[in-house]
Structures are given as C-alpha cells and as structure tokens.
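Try this one yourself first.
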C-alpha cells in the first residue's frame, strides 16, 4: 500500500478546500483529495451569490443584524462579527485572483460591483456572476491552484476515514479509485472540506457528492458535531418530471417574483411582513403548509412582469434550464417545491476552524462555526467557507504541529478485508433511508415520528455496517453508511431540541423556548455535551 507524507491534507475541492490550500501552500505542501472531478462540488452549483458589505449604503452592523435575525437566537455573535468584518477582504481577494463578478456604473459613471438583494437581507449586498456565481468562484480557485506547485490535487480519491493516533488526527485513509486500492496520507494536520449532506433526503438541490462523508468521518474519529437538526430546505426548486430539484435561486424573488397558488392567489403576506422576501425557513414552511392544506403537488413562482431580455441576461442558467423543459419564465409561472439544501450544523469548530480532535480542522458546509445558528441567511455560506477556511489555514501554518508520523496505524478492518471498492451497491439502503428522512424528519416534525426514525435509522446504520463486513465494500456503500450515520445523528439532535426554532419545527412544541434551548445541540462520541 502506498503511504504519502505531506504537510497538510485537504479533503474536498470546493470553495473551502481550495481556499485553505491556496493559503497554506504559501509556506507548505498541501495534498487535496477529491472524490470525483475537481470541480464537482456544491460550490460549482451555487447560483445567487456571496454576501458582503461593499456598498456605501450598507454597514457591518446591518449585515450582522440580518444574520442574527435569520439565526433565530442561536448564532454565535462573535463568529458572525468575524464573518461580516473579514468577508469583504476575502471577496476582494477572489477578484484579485480573477473572479469576474457582475459590474454596473454608479451615479458618477464609475464601475462598481452590481449588488443583488436576497431574502432576509436589508440591503443590496449580494456579489454575483449572473446566476452562476459558484461556477465562477470554483473556476477562479481551480485556476489559481494550477499555478501553485506546492498543491497536489488527486481527483477520484475517496476519503474513507481519518487516521487517528494517540488521540490526534494524523492523516486520512483514501481509496484510490484509479488503482482500486487504499492509500494512506499522513500529515501535520487535516482539513475536512467535504461540503454538505443533502443526499440524506430524496429531494435535494445538492449534487451527488453531498453525502455527509466529513461529518461521518469526524464522528467515527471521535470529534464532536453540533446543530444537525437544522437542515435548510430551499423553498423554490423546480417541480418537473424531467428535472429533479433544480434550484430556482432566491435572487428571482429578489427581482420581484411572487409565489402564487394554482388559482393565482399570492399567499406570502399571510405568513410574514417581508412577504416573498421573508427568510427561507418561513417561505419553505409556508409553501409546505399551503401544499398540505390544498393537497397540491407544488406552488408557482411568477416573474412574468419582467421582460424576457432582462430575465435572459440576469438568469441565463435558469432561463435556459426552464426553456429546456418547455417553460418560458417570461410568460409562464414556474412550478416549485421545497427541497433539502443546506446543513447549518456540522463538525463543531472554533473561530480558527479547529475541531475537538487535535490536528483536525473543518471549514465550509461540513463545519459548524456558529455563524448560521438555527437558520442560514442566504449567500452567507460561500462567505463563511472563504473566511473560516482562510483562518484555519493561517492557524495551521502557525501551529507547531509535529511532522507526519513515521509509523502507520493498522488499516481499518473494513478495508483490510476488501481489495475492491468498485462493486455497485444495491439501491435498497438509500431508498429506505430516503423514505425515513422524507416522511419523519422533514420540514415539519413530530416527536413520535422522530422516535420512530431514530430506531429505524439505528437499524439502517447496523445494516450498512453489516453490509460492509459481509460483502465487498464499494464507494457507494461507504457513502450509504455515511448517510445513514448522518441521518441518525440528525435525528439525535432533533430529539434533544424540544421546541420550535429556525429550521426545526416540532408540532408537539410549537413555541421557541429560550429558557431551555438557547444553546447549541452538541453530540460527542464519548458522550453528550
Ligand atoms: C444549488 C445550490 C445553490 C447554492 N447557492 C448558494 C448561493 O447562492 N450562495 C451561497 O452562499 N451558498 C449557496 N449554496 C451553498 C454553497 O454552495 C455551499 O454551502 C458551499 O459551496 C459549500 O462549499 P464547501 O467547500 O464547503 O463544499 P463543496 O463545495 O460541496 O465541496 C465539497 C468537496 O468535497 C469533496 N468530497 C466530499 N466527500 C469526499 C470524500 N469522502 N473524499 C474526497 N472528497 C470528498 C467533494 O467532491 C467536493 O469537492 C448553494 C448550494 C447549492 C447546492
């Protein structure tokens, strides 16, 4: 088996992983492993943009306040202050690296960044590249890494588990899918930047890579996780038989789109004073409630009052996607439903990206830094990944972590037994998981459903573990194991929070309870904290 030694190993090549790699490679060697092609990530699909205080009409305090309001009392204010104050510098750094965000002219005719507005933001502060902001950021970061000889990027390398020695994370076990064998990467420190876990649900905006691997690996290695009950459902994904879960960006509502029932009635004024621009959780619950009340499969988004030329230019990807399924958004309403979109919780970190396991950092969607609280404000996640991945890299460079271990701990038993990880997995386990999560751990929850889900998921995790030991393992089966484990942890968190807050709506406890629950839900493998 090949054993590699380097300064830092980064798992994931989205915005968080590449930001860390770029900073750390200024002084050290960095190996990035990524499980598919290098650009395949949630980052690549982000549409709306990245939030930052970049206009004279905006202030840090307003962005902080909007973030705290969305977070429903659970944001860590210190983390939010770091995010908002350091954000603009990080966005400018992206521009220096070559990101081509949309520009416009100010009153004096000078070119300035074109700033959009999204739900929950009290000012225009969304930097964007049409409706393909994530693609442009990913392109920029990948291009920058190409010019850094100290960054070594391995595509189709699937991280299986962290290597832990004497209570510290000393590397990563990786499956090399080209050679079909395991390899060990030993390092001074490891960054988990594996993104989200939307694939735990049948309807998600996340691409297939979002299987919660980082959360599962961290948990198995002994790190604490937090706030996994807060899954954000995006209110508006396309409802169409030929296209599952394509996201219709919040920016469409930012440009004036109105949510309507099939008979044309607008309904958001019943739910929130900001109407169609209310925070995402409010909009998702409102749509869910209207769909249940009327027994309808979807609601509609109407932006037909905007000219076709404007829509084509402002939303080129959405426009052409809709056209490809026969919908002309300039003339027809868009059928939409909510879908799992963003995990606000994750591997618990401090403001330097450190997890509870020494030498293990986490950044981006896999991490829980405290900035999102019980609900993420739109366009704060790309920003969080930039700010905290950079901080983690700076800390990792400054920390005097000892050189990579010379001794390799024994291969985990699940790997030692198997030589091939390629065999296709059965769809069965994932289907069962999806059914449980969809029916019992959705937008609106009940204690009885969660309790049933807990026992069903415990059984599924066991089944997945057994499948790994009885049949040849494969990447998909490993992902299934990770997904089942993440689902189980999500339910454990949800069961501990006996109130309704932000993204967690529990019918049995409909009120927010600040006396008992104004705190994170923290789970640690060695016992609850
Ligand atoms: C459709 C969509 C639209 C969005 N729009 C916005 C937006 O407008 N603004 C905003 O702020 N946020 C948006 N988000 C959220 C945002 O895109 C993500 O939160 C963010 O990109 C996460 O970045 P990341 O680097 O943490 O993870 P990702 O970008 O998801 O990268 C994860 C990386 O880890 C790799 N990986 C995962 N597991 C393994 C493993 N076991 N081994 C090796 N590699 C692994 C993946 O292949 C990938 O390279 C959107 C998300 C989606 C899905």
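Now uncover the answer:
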């Amino acid at each position: 088996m090949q054993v590699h030694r380097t300064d830092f190993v980064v798992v994931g090549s989205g915005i968080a992983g590449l930001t860390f790699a770029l900073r750390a490679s200024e002084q050290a060697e960095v190996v990035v492993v990524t499980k598919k092609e290098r650009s395949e990530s949630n980052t690549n699909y982000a549409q709306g943009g990245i939030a930052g205080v970049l206009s004279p009409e905006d202030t840090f305090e307003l962005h902080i306040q909007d973030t705290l309001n969305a977070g429903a009392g659970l944001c860590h204010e210190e983390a939010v202050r770091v995010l908002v104050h350091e954000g603009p510098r990080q966005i400018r750094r992206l521009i220096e690296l070559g990101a081509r965000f949309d520009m416009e002219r100010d009153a004096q005719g000078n070119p300035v960044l074109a700033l959009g507005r999204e739900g929950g933001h009290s000012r225009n502060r969304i930097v964007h590249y049409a409706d393909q902001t994530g693609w442009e950021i990913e392109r920029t970061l990948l291009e920058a890494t190409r010019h850094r000889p100290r960054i070594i990027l391995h595509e189709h390398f699937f991280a299986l588990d962290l290597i832990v020695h004497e209570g510290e994370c000393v590397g990563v076990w990786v499956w090399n899918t080209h050679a079909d064998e395991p390899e060990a990467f030993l390092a001074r420190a490891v960054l988990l930047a594996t993104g989200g876990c939307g694939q735990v649900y049948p309807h998600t905006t996340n691409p297939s890579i979002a299987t919660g691997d980082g959360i599962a690996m961290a948990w198995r290695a002994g790190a604490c996780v937090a706030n996994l009950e807060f899954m954000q459902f995006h209110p508006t994904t396309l409802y169409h038989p030929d296209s599952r879960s394509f996201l219709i960006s919040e920016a469409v509502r930012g440009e004036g789109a109105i949510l309507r029932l099939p008979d044309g009635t607008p309904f958001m004024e019943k739910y929130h004073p900001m109407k169609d621009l209310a925070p995402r959780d409010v909009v998702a619950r409102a749509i869910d409630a209207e769909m249940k009340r009327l027994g309808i499969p979807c609601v509609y988004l109407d932006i037909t009052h905007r000219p076709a030329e404007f829509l084509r230019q402002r939303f080129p990807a959405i426009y052409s996607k809709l056209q490809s399924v026969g919908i002309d958004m300039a003339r027809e309403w868009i059928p939409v439903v909510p879908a799992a979109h963003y995990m606000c919780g994750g591997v618990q970190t401090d403001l330097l990206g450190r997890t509870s396991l020494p030498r293990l950092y986490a950044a981006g969607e896999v991490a829980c830094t405290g900035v999102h609280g019980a609900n993420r404000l739109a366009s704060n996640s790309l920003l969080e990944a930039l700010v905290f991945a950079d901080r983690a890299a700076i800390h990792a460079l400054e920390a005097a972590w000892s050189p990579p271990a010379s001794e390799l701990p024994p291969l985990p038993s699940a790997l030692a037994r198997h030589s091939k990880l390629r065999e296709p997995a059965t769809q069965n386990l994932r289907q069962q998981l999806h059914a449980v999560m969809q029916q019992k751990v959705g937008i609106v929850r009940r204690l009885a459903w969660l309790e049933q889900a807990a026992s069903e998921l415990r059984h599924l995790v066991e089944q997945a573990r057994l499948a790994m030991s009885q049949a040849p393992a494969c990447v998909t089966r490993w992902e299934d194991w990770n997904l089942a484990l993440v689902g189980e942890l999500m339910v454990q968190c949800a069961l501990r929070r006996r109130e309704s807050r932000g993204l967690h709506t529990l019918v049995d406890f409909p009120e927010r309870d600040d006396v008992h629950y104004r705190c994170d839900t923290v789970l640690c493998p060695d016992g609850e904290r």
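Discussion: The chain has three domains: 3-48+131-198+344-398, 235-339, 423-519. The mean pLDDT is 93.
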